[in-house]
Amino acid sequence: MDSFSATAARMPDLRQATIDHPERFRVLTGERPTGRLHLGHYFGTIRERVRLQAHGVETFVVLADYQVITDRDSAGNLRENVHGAVLDYLAAGLDPRSTTIFTHSAVPALHQLLLPFLSLVTESELHRNPTVKAELAASGRALSGLLLTYPVHQAADILFCKGNLVPVGKDNLPHVEVTRTIARRFNERYGRVFPEPQALLSDAPELPGLDGRKMSKSYGNAIALGMTADETAAAINRARTDSERAITYDPDDRPGVSALLETAAVVLGRSPQSIADELGAAGAGALKRLAIEAVNEFLADHRSRLAALTVRDAQEVLRVGHERARDIATATLREVRTAMGMDYTSV
Ligand code: TRP
């Protein structure tokens, strides 16, 4: 069994443990604020966060603004993206009283953990990270120091609050491995400070974008949670299908049709195959109408909650989240410095 299958096989027990013993877990997860959150985010991670919160698991969500510049030159419209993400979290049901939402850049002590952590990994370990390699290839740029070391930075994101459970997609598994290695080596060298966190893999299959490729804002194939019903209809109507009348589920040969089936299926909680069977010879027009109606109905509540929120609400949530994250990061950094013998002034 490879390490991915081994991790996947542990998920049902781990998920059950979060229900039976929520007090044993502290969750840290997050994303890069590169654009509006979309359905892929919702089914990939946000729904799981809301579920963990409902079971009483303490949760931290980092909007990793410094990670935005790992594979691109411009940070983009960070202010708008950060506020938008916070509002989507609130609309999706994250409660800022129990979930701490913060940005990297507002928590300086978190970044200082990077220095001792970098001393615990070798250059060849950094170069071996498959996700870093894939992002480097996709960026079409030279490897920056930040891209090479960002998995270590991500270890600081997780360990600053002693997170021991990290809900992530498959592509972030190598970073959780790096985090475990760093925690273990730090504890061996300086005495036990950190937990060795476990990854919690999403149980939803990855939702393709409307063209069958990975759903991504940069491909223009995403359905943003905050789109209007008309924008959603336009995006789905623009999606390319094929001229075959019969609707069949065949992701390899019919990526467009299959992506629409998967989109409708995930929001309806059905299988793509059953929707294909139901549509039969009805054609792509009928499939699009079904998908539009299903997505818009699914997102209607989210969108009406979103409409009732303002940027000020996001700012208030961040103010509280930043203060809490800073307090925790400062306390952890103090512990780290004490463990390392860098405590010079206390008696
Ligand atoms: N690398 C994650 C992504 O791009 C985002 C992220 C940053 C993250 N820090 C994290 C995820 C800590 C989990 C834990 O999706």
TrEMBL record:
<keyword id="KW-0648">Protein biosynthesis</keyword>
<dbReference type="InterPro" id="IPR014729">
    <property type="entry name" value="Rossmann-like_a/b/a_fold"/>
</dbReference>
<keyword id="KW-0547">Nucleotide-binding</keyword>
<keyword id="KW-0030">Aminoacyl-tRNA synthetase</keyword>
<dbReference type="InterPro" id="IPR001412">
    <property type="entry name" value="aa-tRNA-synth_I_CS"/>
</dbReference>
<dbReference type="InterPro" id="IPR002306">
    <property type="entry name" value="Trp-tRNA-ligase"/>
</dbReference>
<keyword id="KW-0067">ATP-binding</keyword>
<protein>
    <recommendedName>
        <fullName>Tryptophan--tRNA ligase</fullName>
        <ecNumber>6.1.1.2</ecNumber>
    </recommendedName>
</protein>
<comment type="similarity">
    <text>Belongs to the class-I aminoacyl-tRNA synthetase family.</text>
</comment>
<dbReference type="GO" id="GO:0004830">
    <property type="term" value="F:tryptophan-tRNA ligase activity"/>
</dbReference>
<dbReference type="InterPro" id="IPR050203">
    <property type="entry name" value="Trp-tRNA_synthetase"/>
</dbReference>
<keyword id="KW-0436">Ligase</keyword>
<dbReference type="Pfam" id="PF00579">
    <property type="entry name" value="tRNA-synt_1b"/>
</dbReference>
<dbReference type="InterPro" id="IPR002305">
    <property type="entry name" value="aa-tRNA-synth_Ic"/>
</dbReference>
